[in-house]
Design brief:
Layout lengths: L4 H4 L5 H14 L5 E2 L11 H11 L14 H15 L9 E4 L2 H12 L5 E6 L4 H8 L3 E6 L15 H6 E6 L12 H14 L2 E5 L21 H4 E6 H4 L8 E5 L1 H14 L5 H12 L4 H22 L4 E2 L6 E5 L6 H12 L1 E2 L1 E2 L10 E5 L4 H12 L1 H4 L7
Parallel strand pairs: 1-11, 3-4, 3-5, 5-6, 6-7
Antiparallel strand pairs: 2-8, 7-8, 9-10, 10-13, 12-13
Helix pairs in contact: 3-12, 4-12, 5-6, 5-11, 13-15
The chain binds pyridoxal-5'-phosphate.
Length: 394
């Protein structure tokens, strides 16, 4: 059987490999504390689950959904954007529910990238931006996110012949994996740049509701003129602890939303309606779960940063997102260090290089670890230096 070339060269998704290694160790009876995956451990709030139970009883929800999503859901998303960001959206043309935001992020390239076209992709970055581009026959052009620039990309220096072929610019704030945030001034600059070069901006913003110390991350669509050139991907996964239910949305520029809707209507049959009802309950119901969850993550963030600093790792204390991005100690690369933590103290973290070359020299700790495991993991990390190998690799 001949597998298509576009799949042949594809490596398994980053977390599939990490989870496999963890499962092998656990099968041998080793205790592994997993800081690697960003998947909220706190359950979906009860009122959202209740809406699912009710919706499951309604035969109308047993049939094919419409790929454009329930009108009530599109309306609820538009109202939430108005309340949260003061952004006005037309629910008919500027809102599209997705089967989790990863689905839309992967598919948007097929709507805008022809073979040979370019997408500007952050490095380090969520791997799907580059993979989607490659699946469409395009080429990712990597923009380094450097610590000295606050992990924001610098567009100066991109050559004209690259810009001529560029169709999409990917940005993501609050950022995975660095935990960096961007202000409206940056989004304004992005809109100006995209207008000048006729590029679609895809802002991936699943972490805008996961923030600390009173900080409120902005939406790209708050920048003047953003809807002329941009769309924003958002998700129920992290805001309402709904990763398992697979529901997200794309909002913004009507042409881009329309193209994605046309594509999706041809290859999927929408989101199960009972799950769309959960999303409506999430947006229209009480929002107190958001600050409650953020208080838990903030406490964990502080504990993790304290322990990592104590053992000599340099960390950026994040204002938002679910991640602490820590520099590996001298003499290690990110895979060496992640492997050493896993093999010597049973702590799993994500090596930064898994997010691209620009992630080399860092590892990522996720805050979505239950408190009992967190305490064990932090105690193991506190003792890491005592278990350290004697000869440090160069
Ligand atoms: N974008 C980023 C930056 C993410 O970190 C994730 C998930 O971890 C997603 C998108 C996908 O989220 P969803 O569960 O909505 O597919």
């Amino acid at each position: 059987m001949k597998i298509a070339r576009r799949i042949e060269g594809l490596q398994p998704y980053l977390f599939v490999e990490i989870n496999k290694k963890i499962a092998e160790k656990r099968a041998k009876g080793e205790e592994i504390i997993n800081f690697a995956v960003g998947d909220p451990d706190i359950p979906t709030p009860p009122h959202i689950i209740e809406s699912l139970c009710q919706a499951a009883q309604d035969p109308a929800n047993h049939r094919y959904p419409e790929s454009a999503g329930l009108p009530e859901l599109r309306q609820a998303i538009a109202e939430w954007y108005k309340k949260r960001f003061d952004v006005t959206l037309d629910p008919a043309t500027e809102v599209l529910p997705l089967i989790g935001s990863k689905e839309g992020i992967g598919h948007i390239a097929l709507c805008f990238i022809d073979p040979g076209d370019v997408a500007l992709v952050p490095d380090p970055g969520y791997p799907v931006y580059a993979l989607g581009t490659q699946m469409a026959g395009g080429r990712p052009y990597y923009l380094s996110l450097k610590e000295e620039n606050g992990f924001l990309p610098d567009f100066r220096g991109i050559k004209d012949f690259i810009l001529d072929k560029t169709r999409i610019l990917w940005i993501n704030y609050p950022n995975n994996p660095t935990g960096a945030v961007a202000g409206l001034d940056f989004f304004k600059l992005v809109v100006e740049f995209a207008k000048k070069h006729d590029i679609l901006v895809c802002h991936d913003g699943p972490y805008t509701e996961v923030s600390y110390d009173g900080y409120q991350p902005p939406s790209l669509l708050q920048a003047e003129g953003a809807k002329d050139v941009g769309i924003e991907f958002h998700s129920f996964s992290k805001s309402y602890n709904m990763t398992g239910w697979r529901i997200g949305m794309a909002v913004g520029n009507a042409v881009a939303i329309g193209a994605l809707k046309t594509f999706k209507s041809n290859i999927d049959s929408g989101i199960p309606q009972a799950i769309q009802r959960m999303a409506i309950a999430a947006l229209n119901g009480p929002q107190s779960c958001i600050p409650e969850h953020n208080a838990v993550y903030q406490r964990r963030r502080d504990l993790i940063c304290e322990v990592l600093t104590n053992i000599g790792l340099q960390v950026n204390v994040p204002k938002a997102s679910l991640y602490v991005w820590a520099k590996v100690p001298e003499g290690y690369n990110s895979v060496d260090f992640a492997t050493e933590l896993l093999d010597q103290i049973g702590v799993a973290v994500t090596p930064g290089v898994g997010y691209g070359r620009g992630g080399e020299g860092y590892v990522r700790f996720s805050l979505t670890i239950p408190d009992v495991s967190l305490v064990k993991g932090l105690s193991k990390l506190s003792g890491w230096r005592n278990t350290r190998r004697l000869v440090v690799k160069k």
